[in-house]
Design goal:
6 helices, five-stranded antiparallel beta sheet, 33% helix, alpha+beta
């Protein structure tokens, strides 16, 4: 992912009002983001605990998505729809996102299960176990990174395409 400025981040949101974009709080570690190992940028708003944000590169442009934590969370431990990590060190939560454009203004949303604090980029980079990876753990890790990028892109396109 290309490094983004605060202004680029705020302008990227396709399903948030101008007021919501101006009010968002950047990630606490914004200055230290490792952009080279970031497939999508995701964070929870420290001032609004029910709000999360994702910025996904789609066709070389950042697409920002404002998410809302669902009221009812799964009782069993679900799998993240983006990283699909089966040995998660973190919780997974249900988030909903308004669609872009007129559909979102009418209240239409889509939902997905995502790592609660958006740890997917780190999860897919963990070296897989020998049992899971066989003789080529780097190939498995590379495939997991590419799969994360594909699923994040697909989610962003769902927000855009129905808007």
């Amino acid at each position: 992912m290309h490094a983004l400025t605060e202004s680029q981040i705020r302008k990227s949101f396709v399903n948030a009002s101008l007021r919501e974009r101006n009010a968002l709080t950047l990630p606490p570690d914004f200055a230290d983001i490792d952009w080279e190992n970031t497939d999508y940028l995701g964070w929870r708003d420290p001032k609004l605990p029910l709000i999360g944000y994702m910025i996904v590169p789609v066709d070389d442009r950042p697409v920002g998505i404002m998410l809302r934590l669902g009221g009812r969370q799964p009782r069993t431990r679900p799998q993240c729809s983006l990283c699909e990590d089966v040995q998660l060190p973190n919780e997974v939560a249900f988030y909903s996102a308004k669609l872009a454009g007129p559909a979102g203004r009418k209240g239409n949303t889509v939902g997905t299960l995502v790592c609660s604090n958006f740890e997917c980029c780190a999860n897919v980079r963990v070296r897989p176990s020998k049992i899971y990876a066989g003789d080529d753990p780097e190939a498995v890790r590379s495939q997991r990174i590419e799969s994360l990028r594909t699923r994040a892109d697909g989610f962003a396109r769902r927000i855009l395409d129905k808007g």
